[in-house]
Amino acid sequence: MAENYRKRGIFEEVAFVFPNAPTIPITVIAFNDLAQAQDQPGILESRDYFHSLIKAEIDKGIPSSRIILGGFSQGGSVGILAGLTSPYPLAGIFGLSSYLLLADALPKLITPALKSANSSTPIFMGHGELDPLVKLEWGQRTAEALKGLGWTVDLRVYKGLGHSANPKEMDDLERWLEERLKA
Length: 183
Prior knowledge:
Elements: H1 2-8, H2 40-59, E1 68-72, H3 74-84, E2 92-96, H4 106-109, H5 112-118, E3 123-128, H6 136-148, E4 153-158, H7 167-180
Parallel strand pairs: 1-2, 2-3, 3-4
Helix pairs in contact: 2-3
């Protein structure tokens, strides 16, 4: 994504940070409900790591209002949770083929101060209608839950798309990023 933007001469002033998940043993569990099989301590550790990345950018002099947090699949899901619970006001949050982690615990995780920091932070979600891994229904339920909590969510569904991205989704995300990062 960043390389594509660089080749096209856009977002040249933007630093892209792509963290890697730690290598840890996992148990693969098939689940059909978002509330099942969520490792809350591990998810919160990942969220805290994302928060440390935000803080590192702020420490470099980047205003939090110029930081966008997002990702694809599980990375997007952690990005959404980390963005919603960030103590710093962000320019935006996006998740592609993502869903809301710890949905049942979210009201307890978002204190009034955290809600105040990001209550007006816009959220972009892109999802393939044929995604077999992160079901479209999960993305739709996530968008509705976030709207119910007061966030503005732009959910786009891409016809014929599975668990991947396509040019239309990348174009929509690019336009959304441009809006958030206007000078």
